[in-house]
Structure formats: structure tokens, C-alpha cells
Amino acid sequence: MTATGIYAPEILVDGRFVTDHIVLIEKDVVINILPKEQCPDGVPVISFDDGKLVPGFFDIQVNGGGGVLFNDDPSVAAIKAIGAAHRIFGTTMFLPTLISDDLEKIEQAIAAVDAAIDQGVPGVVGIHLEGPFLNAEKKGIHDARKFRRLDEAAIRLLSSLRKGRTLITLAPEMTDCASIAKLAATGVVIAAGHTNATYEQTLEAVKAGVSGFTHLYNAMSPFQSRAPGAVGGAFATTDTFASLIADGFHVHPASLSLAIRTKGVAKTILVTDAMPTVGSAQKEFWLGEERITATGGKCENASGVLAGSDLDMASAVRFIVNNTKYTLEDACAMASKSPASFMKVDHAVGDIKIGTKANFTLLDNNLMVSQTWIDGVIFKGQTRR
Question: Which residues are named in the active-site annotation (predicted)?
Fold first, then answer.
């Protein structure tokens, strides 16, 4: 037998922690989870005296990390650097995310992700294209000069990734339902974001193929008594997913709790929306013509507009545990199983069960990351932050 065992005092299996169990992996796949005393003779076991083994985190919105911004350098080398910066904080799967840019840059980014997957860069699951099919009224830090309409040529480009999964964020009101349906039919996952859509427009877009909402509350039409907006549309459509940035700056803890209670843990996704400052001593960078500074964990431009985040996934998990009524089990599900389900890869990742990839995060008793595994390969966890 070429299996290896991993023992931790607590292991998160099927939404609950079990004690005194071992996860058996062979190559990059989980082949069994069994009580410690039932481990077959001769199997080498990596043992940890304390800590909790949880599914590796899956971040579907990663603009940068390790001093690198994907928009500045849409290359395999940049993807490697971003992945390395985030895996020390427990992220074992991620979508390199391109902020609104020209179609030529999108083409380069898609080619880079395809090449990264071909080369086996750890953790790359696909790509997230956040724009440029957005509404200037809700542009946030995006450069509205890059915005454009969704046409046939764009649909062909957006669906051109050969390997992995593609997530597109768009403003439904800036296109039409026929185009949304055509894009969805190619197999890409579509989220509404940076949108000023009405409640009615949002519901129509969901019928056409929108299945999620990017950073709920932020840069979208709010929920009001006589105008429920895109947020109301997210709350009303129980089969859609919603991502949230749990850093204490983007969303109030009460609003976080309301969203989770409304959508349910299984339909709520934690994202970082991370910028190059994560995993780096560099706390300033340029986003196009905007100088962005990270201070006290918050990224913003000179006018105080939020510009992504200085957040890592382990910190997001801790924020949920420390600032809402939701448990560590819930937070881990929102950081792993929910995004895997949204991106339609939950058969392979997002949980610790037989047949899934050996992607794990070991949390210490303070919920800091001490080890990560990506496809069975072990990496060291965070040493600072």
C-alpha cells in the first residue's frame, strides 16, 4: 500500500468534527477516513498533537497577493506567486481574478490560467473575470473607461478557457437576458455584481442564467422598502449563491449574519477580494492610475474608496467565528464547500470525504494556519499576520 495517514485531534467530516480519526490519502486523493486504532499496519502517519484538520479553503476572488496584481502581470509566474502567498493562509484552491480590463488583457489572462493548469501550478481551479460588463454607477474602484457591452465576440472569448472553471461577474442591466442565457449555455458560471439592477431585472437575470452575487451588498443596488434592488433579488432567490467579504470594512457583522441566515450557509461564500498586499510586506500599489494603500487591514484609494481587500481566508474564517453567531464548522463550509458547489467542482474538492482531492488546512487552537495540503503535497502555513 502506498497510502499515507494524517492524524489530527479533530477532523471536519461531513460538517462536524470527529476525534481520534485518521485521513488516509493515496497520491492526491482521500481513500479512507477511519478511527485511529483501525489504521492498517505499515501505513506511515503524519501526526499532529493539536489542531483541527479542515477542508482546504477555496477563494473564488483573488486579485493578487505576494506583491503581485494579476491585472499587471497576467502570466503563469504571477499566478504561482499569488497562489504561494495565499496558501500559507489556508487557501488551497483559487480563481485568479482579473478586474475590468481590455479584451486583449482578458485573452492574456485566460491563456495564462490555461497554461498554469497545464503546468500543474498548485491550487488553480480556473479564472474569475470581474467585468468589464459592469455599471458605471456602481463601479467602485473599477476603471469605467474599460466597461463595454456583452457581444458575440466577448461571449466567445469569455468561454474560451480550455481547462478549469470560469466565473464571470457582470451587471445584468447592462446586457440582455438572451445574451446572459447564451453565455450560461457555454458552461461558465455567472454572478451579478457592480450592478444597479432593479429587483425585477435581477430576477429575470437569474432566470436567464445568473446563479450568484459577487460581494453581496458592495457595489450593488441596496435593499429598500419600495425598491428591493439586487440585494433583495439575492435574498429572494434561494437557489443562488452570494459571496461576502468578511473583513469588518466591507460589511457590518449584523449584515453578514442577516445574509447568512437568509441565504443559508450552503449558499453563502466567503471571499477575500484580495490585493497584492496579502502575504507581502508591500502595503502600497497602483491599480491603473489609482494609488492604493493598505492601512489597518483596509485597502483604499486617496478618496477613501475601498479597493479590494488586505484580507486572507483564515482571517475571514476567524472574523465569522468571532463576530457572528456562526460556528467554525459553518465558517469552514462557507470557505470551502459552498464555493466548490457554486463552481460545480464539489465532487472533487470542498470537503474531506472519500474520493475528494487531498486539499486540507490545519488550524491551530487560535485558528491560525499551521499546514496546508494541495493535492496531497504539504506546505507550511502562516508565520505572521
Answer: 273 (proton donor/acceptor)
